[in-house]
Amino acid sequence: MTTAKRVLLVEDDRFLRRACEASLRQKGLDVTTAVDGEQGLERARVARFDLILLDLLMPKLSGLDVLRALKADPATRDMPVLVLSNSSRAQDVREVEALGVVGYIVKANMSLKELGERIDRALDAGTGSASGLRP
Amino acid sequence: MLEDLAADTRHDPAHKAAAIALGYASFVGAPLRAAGRTFGALNVFTKAQRRFTPDEVALLSAFADQAALAIEKARLFAEARQHAAEAETLAAVNEVLASTLDVDRVLEGVLDGALRIVGADRAMVYRLDEAGTTLRARAVRGVGTAPGFGVKVDHAVVGSAVARRLPVAYADVLAASLPGADEFYAEHGTTLAEAIRRQEYRGILATPLLAGQSVHGAICVYWTEVHAATEQEIRLLTALARQAAVALDKARLYEEAQTQRTRLAQIFESTSDGIVLVGRDGAVQATNHRAGELLGFDADRAVGIAFADLIAGDAQAFAGLRAALTDPQSRSEGDLDLKPIVRIVHWVAQPTLDASETTIGFTLTLQDVTQERLASQMKSDFVSFVTHQLRTPLSGIKWMLELAAETPERVEETTAYVHDAREAAERLINLVNDLLDASKLESGRLALALEEVDLRRLTREVIDEIAPLLREKGHRLSVDDATCPAAALADAQLLRQVVLNLTSNAVKYTPAGGRITVRVGARPDGVEWAITDSGIGIPKEAQRKLFEKFFRADNVFAVETEGTGLGLYLVRLIVEKHGGRVWCESEEGRGSTFAFALPAGTPAGPEEAR
What we know:
The complex is a heterodimer of chains A (135) and B (610). With 135 residues, chain A is an alpha/beta fold. Chain A has a single domain (6-125), classed as Rossmann fold, CATH 3.40.50.2300. In chain A, 42% of the residues lie in helices and 17% in strands. Chain A has helices spanning 14-26, 37-46, 63-72, 90-99, 112-125; strands at residues 6-10, 30-34, 51-54, 81-85, 103-106. In chain A, strands 2-1-3-4-5 form a five-stranded parallel β-sheet, with helices on both faces. In chain A, helix 1 (14-26) links the parallel strand 1 and strand 2 (30-34). In chain A, helix 2 (37-46) runs parallel beside helix 3. Mean pLDDT of chain A is 88; it is low at 128-135. Chain B has five domains: 5-75, 2-Layer Sandwich (Beta-Lactamase), CATH 3.30.450.40; 100-257, GAF domain (Beta-Lactamase, 2-Layer Sandwich); 273-368, Beta-Lactamase (2-Layer Sandwich); 382-441, Orthogonal Bundle (Helix Hairpins), CATH 1.10.287; 447-599, 2-Layer Sandwich (Heat Shock Protein 90). Chain B contains 17 helices and 20 strands. Chain B has helices spanning 13-21, 54-98, 103-118, 156-164, 181-187, 192-199, 231-270, 289-295, 307-310, 319-325, 370-406, 411-443, 455-465, 467-473, 492-508, 540-543, 567-577; strands at 26-34, 37-46, 122-128, 134-142, 151-152, 168-170, 203-211, 214-223, 274-279, 284-287, 332-338, 343-353, 359-368, 450-453, 476-480, 488-491, 515-523, 526-533, 581-587, 591-599. In chain B, helix 2 runs antiparallel to helix 3 (103-118). The longest helix of chain B is centred in the N-terminal third of the chain and has 45 residues, at 54-98. The interface between A and B is medium-sized, with 28 and 28 residues.
């Protein structure tokens, strides 16, 4: 039996978080949510995820800071990150891409269906399944 | 030769009579001649009448010739000595004139020299004005004072010397008829005689100051007694005038150059732009202090130093400018982002050309554009942020409706999605409305509809409106409005927005079962409204920024609430529009007080108080 892929959704907007979470669960993914950057980083540090969906503009710790922290830590460096942001500020895109992500998606420009397809592709590109809690 | 003086008829009878009276009877004479010119005679008289032998006559002639030679030699010697003395005097004066470039000192030297070389009682220098029509007394030395008025060219002695470009002398001006003098003195309400008496002079000599082809004025010397200027005096004064004209011309040019220099230096220093002149060798030739300030070097020590060394600090920031330096032939420009001192400097490098259009280096102008660039950055950041804020509820609506459409059969879920979509739409509308309000208030386009507003009643109405929310959170709310004046002059709708915003904030950010107090009271200068809650409080560093656009304290997210980020900003704009102020006192974890004060009487500017 194949284990469900583990996805961490870091999103501060409750509507978007709820909609996205519902859609991903419908696809059979194992979804963990975080309501701000701080919580997101905490969760990414205690468990391995096959994909992190990361918002940028968030309270406490911005998505960019989360990404920097993830990439600086050898334990989390390899987890693929897909940025989901409604900001299309050129500077944000540049900085994010320089840190290394699998994609940058403007939420308003995508349906949940399209988003699901992007996530599938990102997961397929990833190497195998995450093994739950890290030892 | 005359044997008998008494019988002579050829000689001057007076001379003859005198010789006879002295007892002389005979006479022999020989001419005194030198260099082909006869300048006198050597005469020999005898009391006894006698005839002179040819030998005696020849002897006398030879003696006369020798005497003439000796006399001529002595004369030439005296003349040479005089010339030498004149040359020495002129040289001494010239030395004084040449030693200075200061116009006043040159004038002093000229006057001293003039008095010394011609032995006059008074000397004066006139200068021709720019138009070349009037002479003005510039300096005077000796007896009397300078006349306060100008002298027209070709009027009076000095005018005629200037007009004719020749020395003019009068032994006695009282006896002379001067051209245009009567008319000139009449114009000044006096007569020539009166003017001369007042200035106490009779003899006058005026010489024009000629430098090359142009007349700059005149030197005038005066004698208190009648005095006919000698040829020598005229010659000396003319020579002095020539020297003086050259010296004055030099001093004037120097003064002009100095004035220009000072003026340029002042402009150079007073401009708000930084300027650096760099030579072909790359060394700084000149720089103003502003340039040093902008680029962070010591302008007082920069001259002579290679410009590239001055900007050696930040290799990356200066890369563009450095590249421009390697090609001084073409104009280039760019921005320097000086991160450590948070300054953006715009630079323009232009080749500096000399009179023959050859590039002799380049001129660098520097401008502090930090504010402009920052403003432009803030504007684009604001647009990005608003875009983000609008997209967020929009994508929420879009995704909720997508989910609802996927599972129409699961009614309960679908209803929840639609409900969320409506809520997100509500948020979007609030945001758009707040943005519009902020924009209107910021631009001053919003006119206040001022009326008497009962602040006590308004507060109670607002509390009634949010009663359901209060009940839901289980807060206890009390109103202390004992001293409230009946009314404040305000825009009722906007003031209501302020009270509603501050009250609902207190309710939202206070954990369930909290305690909220509203105080409405009079101040000496108006009214004050304050709300105190027992909520989460606001971190110190956030308190200053609370009333800024789109600011939200981080700990706000500890409780899940959503705002537009414009509420308190709008509160501030509205209160300030009414001429009041808004503030906050808070301690994290112990609650906050938000308050505003409105002035008594007519608030805000005259354009709103219609």
